[in-house]
Structures are given as C-alpha cells and as structure tokens.
Amino acid sequence: MDYMNGPGRHHLFVPGPVNIPEQVIRAMNRNNEDYRSPAIPALTKTLLEDVKKIFKTTSGTPFMFPTTGTGAWESALTNTLSPGDRIVSFLIGQFSLLWIDQQKRLNFNVDVVESEWGQGANLQVLASKLSQDQNHSIKAICIVHNETATGVTNDISAVRTLLDHYKHPALLLVDGVSSICALDFRMDEWGVDVALTGSQKALSLPTGLGIVCASPKALEATKTSKSLKVFFDWNDYLKFYKLGTYWPYTPSIQLLYGLRAALDLIFEEGLDNVIARHARLGKATRLAVEAWGLKNCTQKEEWISNTVTAVVVPPNIDSTEIVKRAWKRYNLSLGLGLNKVAGKVFRIGHLGNLNELQLLGCLAGVEMILKDVGYPVVLGSGVAAASTYLQHHIPLIPSRI
Ligand SMILES: *Cc1c(COP(=O)(O)O)cnc(C)c1O
Fold first, then answer.
1. 20 to 30 A Cα–Cα from 284, which one of 102, 275, 294, 315?
2. Residue 186 has pLDDT above 60, yes or no
3. Are residues 357 and 283 in the same domain?
4. What positions does the domain Aminotransferase class V occupy (predicted)?
C-alpha cells in the first residue's frame, strides 16, 4: 500500500484545509435539528454579529453560504456587477488565476494585470489605469489579499489609497480566504466593498461555509446588478434576515455550532493576539528556510505572508518528491507547488489553530526530508533558527499566568 495512516498525530501543514481544534470538533458532534425552531435563528443572530468582528467591520452585512471560497467569489461578483462590466483583476498565482477564470466565465470584461509569480499586485499599473479612466468604465477591482500559491500578501490599504486619490468609484472586492482571521484585515478602514473567506482556512473549521461581507455601497450595487444569480442571491438572505428566521434554505447546522466554537476560541485568545501569533509563526518559518540555505518564493519583504511560505527548491530537486515523501515517511502534509511553480516549490501552511511547537515539528520533518532527497542540509539548523527566535517571542498564555 502506498499510503497508510501512521501512529500519533498527523501533521497537517497544507495551507488549507487546516487542523480543527478539539473544542470545535466536539461542538460539531451533534445531531441534526429543526432549523425553523427558535434555537437556530438565535444562534445565527450571534454568528452574524460576531463574524463582523473578524472582518473588522461595523457597517458591513455578512452572508453565510453553504459553499466554499469559490462560491463566495461567485456571490461577490454576481450580486454587485453586470455581464460586460469592466473589472481590473490581478494575476499573481493560482488562486488569483482561478478567480479570473471565474470572472471570464461569468462574462465580465476582465482587464488582467499580471505579475511574475512570487510578486505582489502591480499597483503602478492600477494607478495608470485609474488615472486614464475618466468616464469610470472600471466597475470593480478584484484582488486576492493573500495569494496562497506563492505566499504573497498584497497591500489592500494601498489599493484604497489609489482609488481615493483618483476619486474613482470602482468597487473593491477582496478575497481574504487565506488571510481573514490570521492576517491584519480591516474591511471598514480600507474601504473594502466585498470581503470573503472560507471556513477551512484560518477559521479552522471543516470546508463548507463561505462567508461574504458586503459594504453599504456593495448592497446598493445589487439594485442595478444584472448578473444571473439564484443560490447566491443576497436578496434572498436579506428577506429572511428581516423575518428573523435568517435562512432561505437549509444551513449546515453542525458547521454553525462549529463556527460558534471557533469564534469563541478566537475571541478568547483575542483577534489581535491571533494575528500576532501568525506573525511569529511566519517569521520563524522564514528564518528556518534561510538557515537551510533555501529561497522563499516571495520576492520582496513587503509581500511576505504570515500564513503560508512557498519554499523554492534547487533545480536538481523535484518539490513534488518532497511532498510525497513527507506524507509517506513522516506523516506530514505539505502543500504542493501549483501550476507555474509545480515541482519548483513546496508550501508550508502556518495558519489557523496552530502553535509554535507544532510548527517546530513540521520544520524538523522538512529538514529530514531535505536530507532524504539529497539536499545538503544540517539537521537542526532550521529548527534552531526558528526556536531561537520563538523563545524570545512566545508570550505567556494569559489564562495560565
Ligand atoms: C483556498 C482558497 C480559495 C478557494 O477556496 P475553495 O474553498 O477551495 O473554493 C480561494 N482563494 C484563496 C486565496 C484560497 O486560499
């Protein structure tokens, strides 16, 4: 047999789906129930209030769809835009590529701004497009906050600054699937019109919940949007919000209880502490990569990602082999290189409900694999670089002081 489960814990270090904490697993271990009973609307009401906090919005309206990140994309586009609308969209890796493909298939007029994989969105090109667009033909800017394929984080506040500078009314649609709840994300402050995430990434839930948050301006745009939408129509939800029953169709009851538990954990730790923890994990991973003498796929410091690190392997090594070996020999899951960077990078996901010692275990595993495939790594070098840094930066656990 090629693949089998080993003893002990599996080390899941793909950048989504990520580990689910025990508290959340237990909260979801329950029977189905009647979603028209008073309990589910009461639970939903608290969830809709509380998910706003992870987007850092008070003015936004959240929608929770039984879907994945891909469905959340579709909901953002079809509720606010009409076929033929011009969209400026940044292509910097596999996830932005897939979103652009969806935009094209939904018949929008996509103006693609491409960067080399490993670089962030080219905002100079955006500035020149905005400055030339006197008659406001650009209806939306679509940008992936954190490109999970290359480990590149874009500066969303800089996009808002440009839109404001040119007094341009285009909507700002942001994919926050591998950032919201892990990286600094400020929907209101950055003037984001639609922000979205999926449950299996930083929220550390099973797959199946797409959470979309719309600004008042995005809600206004639904009135003129002519895109065909049925399942993802925000207006169906708004009708049921008014009635206080919340759900136009059956929600995943277990996922709602899971979301409640996940949010409780996040708020108990403190959202800003969660973000700081991700910054520590990201930094420790990058220090390990440096100690191994390998390069990060992210080309500049300004784009580094604290949720995923794509490690570039030397040309004589196939990164797919590293990922295979991790699974077979060490019970460790690493992310594959996707599309243009297939075979060239492997990815370490360090997002969600995860602590520093778990990460060190992963880094130790990566070192052994590198040695297995013939890369001259000094065992312990990356772990030492990471643990030396972490030892100085791990705070006391507040509840144990
Ligand atoms: C995972 C991911 C998606 C796609 O989400 P699915 O849940 O697989 O549909 C979209 N964008 C980013 C940035 C992602 O990381």
1. 315
2. yes
3. yes
4. 13-313
